[in-house]
Write a structure and sequence with these properties.
- The structure is a single chain.
- The protein has a domain at 3-171 and 209-238: NAD(P)-binding Rossmann-like Domain (Rossmann fold), CATH 3.40.50.
- The strands form four sheets. Strands 3-2-1-4-5-6-11 form a seven-stranded parallel sheet, with helices on both faces. It has a two-stranded parallel sheet with strand order 7-10.
- The chain is of the alpha/beta class.
- The protein is built from ten helices and 13 strands.
- The structure holds nicotinamide-adenine-dinucleotide (NAD).
- Residues 8, 10-14, 31-37, 52-54, 72-76, 91, 95, 113, 115, 166, 168-169, 175, 178, 180-181 line the site of nicotinamide-adenine-dinucleotide.
């Protein structure tokens, strides 16, 4: 039975990863400051170290005795990077360096979340790992910085790493405020209330939506592929979905009809984002990713169940038991 550290384990992707690790018999320690994550997403029985991943002493304690680390803690928001550039930099890049430094004495393997945001706006699709990196945000620049420091970690300090560039991850337990796929929960909410959904521009812009279970499969397989060469792989489906098609597929999954309300295009929005999954499939031996509709059915079932977390909600002090 191995022990894994999951930073950001009370967040959306982290909570699914913790559940998958426990299901295969591993032990889990979580480091999370609960800034966007929630204790309701903490795997029951998992140890929680509450605090900032950029705190060197805490990162060192968190790494004690672990066999590997999945590093997912980050402020996963382009907008937050605009509002608080130094603050997001501390969490997103300094936090990663603190963690790599803590992995250094025992050369603990680290699988970390990078992002499709490192690519910026690309004209050649699908985007392969070798495409030029042109981040358009502090968030994307910091994720690229993580990849660069992982290279240093391997070359100078002998730390095995693997970076995974997630595209638009979706699934149950996603915060509707997520800039990636929060649109899915928002569309579900509005449609189920009989309201139209807002589509910016013509709705033909496309994204590569990857279901969270497929992301977890890549993370788990990735631990064995971490190396001092600091490889980096896409985590995506290679299937484009337009925002319009997304709205209609969600409506279908909810048993409703979608009414679209067109809004002016959003300035600076990337028109098409589509990843090439071939290299990750080859290196990690991954199967076919889940289809959009299949994943959406799970999201709709979760929404209908009242958005449960992994742990039952805590009773307020003094509540009747
Ligand atoms: N969701 C996506 O589509 C997507 C796409 C690309 C990359 N990513 C990356 O995947 C990772 C997980 O994203 P998510 O969607 O689960 O986001 P999330 O916000 O649900 O999870 C992030 C977790 O990290 C914690 N956290 C934030 N700052 C911290 C800090 N300084 N110290 C300790 N904990 C901290 C939060 O409380 C939260 O629990 C992030 O690194 C994100 O950048 C996500």
């Amino acid at each position: 039975m191995a022990l894994y550290l999951v930073t950001g384990g009370c967040g959306f992707i982290g909570s699914h990863l913790c559940a998958a690790l426990a299901a295969r018999g591993d032990r889990v320690r979580v480091l999370d400051d609960l800034s966007t994550g929630s204790e309701e997403n903490l795997l029951p029985g998992a140890e929680l170290l509450r605090g900032d991943v950029a705190d060197h002493a805490l990162a060192g304690r968190a790494m004690e005795g672990v066999d590997g680390c999945f590093h997912l803690a980050a402020i996963a928001s382009v907008q937050r990077g605009v509002e608080d550039w130094p603050g997001t930099h501390r969490a997103n890049l300094s936090g990663t360096i603190a963690l790599l430094d803590a992995a250094r004495p025992r050369r603990i393997p680290v699988v970390y979340a990078s992002s499709a945001a490192v690519y910026g706006d690309q004209s050649v699709l699908p985007i392969a790992e070798t495409a030029p990196k042109r981040p358009l945000s502090a968030y994307g620049a910091d994720k690229l910085g993580c990849e660069q420091h992982a290279l240093v970690g391997g070359a100078v300090h002998g730390i095995p790493t693997l970076g995974l560039r997630f595209f638009n991850v979706f699934g149950p337990r996603q915060d509707p405020r997520s800039p990636y796929s929060g649109v899915i929960s928002i569309f579900c909410d509005r449609l189920s209330r009989g309201e139209p959904v807002d589509v910016y521009g013509d709705g033909e812009q496309t994204r590569d939506f990857v279901f969270v279970a497929d992301v977890v499969a890549a993370l788990l397989a990735g631990m064995g592929a971490a190396s001092v060469q600091a490889p980096v792989l896409n985590v995506c489906t290679g299937r484009p979905t337009s925002v319009k098609l997304l709205a209609h597929t969600i409506a279908d999954a909810c048993g409703l009809t979608a009414a679209l309300r067109h809004q002016p295009p959003r300035a600076g929005e990337i028109r098409h984002s589509l990843g090439d999954p071939a290299e990750a499939r080859r290196m990690l031996g991954l199967g076919e990713p889940r289809g959009l509709r299949q994943g959406l059915d799970e999201v709709v079932a979760w929404l209908r169940a009242g958005r449960p977390g992994l742990s039952p909600p805590r009773m307020p002090a003094g509540a009747l038991r």
